[in-house]
Structure to design on (175 residues):
């Protein structure tokens, strides 16, 4: 008996949201599902996961659709908005194609928070997703309506982190 795929949200101020999504991807690939991850605010070749995905032999595809650097204010700039809208269209295409058993929208919650995409667009995608497509949404500031609609919401909470002591991120560990 086939079970209905769910919607998971990984949010909160702590580290580990993307890592949790990648863990879910790893398990999905192990179960024979193809996985597509769209990264809303990350630039190509900027994180270890971009290179690690190659080891999954085409079962895990990661598509970064952001520019280098951070968006520091709501609304970003016109390029940020265009890139986020393109990422949302890519997400819609991937989910509705049913080519993937899991689609991950990495940092989509932040894109909504910054006003780059509308929460209604993500809610529409959730409501229209095929029953066999697992959807994972990551990023801080998850919108209350998305939390309400999700089947599972996990909040990452920082208790202590070496970044607070000035230790920089390490390639292969934090990115």
């Amino acid at each position: 008996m086939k079970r209905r795929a769910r919607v998971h949200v990984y949010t909160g101020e702590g580290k580990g949201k993307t890592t949790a999504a990648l863990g879910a991807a790893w398990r999905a690939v192990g179960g024979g599902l193809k996985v597509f991850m769209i990264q809303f605010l990350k630039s190509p070749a900027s994180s270890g996961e971009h290179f690690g995905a190659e080891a999954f032999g085409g079962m895990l595809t990661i598509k970064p659709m952001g520019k280098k650097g951070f968006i520091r204010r709501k609304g970003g700039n016109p390029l940020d908005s265009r890139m986020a809208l393109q990422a949302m269209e890519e997400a819609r295409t991937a989910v509705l194609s049913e080519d993937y058993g899991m689609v991950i929208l990495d940092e989509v919650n932040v894109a909504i928070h910054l006003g780059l995409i509308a929460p209604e667009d993500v809610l529409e995608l959730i409501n229209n997703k095929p029953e066999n497509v697992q959807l994972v949404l990551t990023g801080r500031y998850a919108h209350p309506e998305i939390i309400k609609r999700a089947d599972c919401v996990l909040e990452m909470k920082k208790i202590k982190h070496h970044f607070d002591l000035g230790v920089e991120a390490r390639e292969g560990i934090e990115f």
In short: Helices lie at 17-30, 48-52, 78-97, 108-113, 119-128, 144-149. The CA atoms of residues 34 and 59 lie 5 Å apart. The longest strand covers residues 7-11. Strands lie at 7-11, 35-39, 60-64, 102-106, 134-138, 152-155.
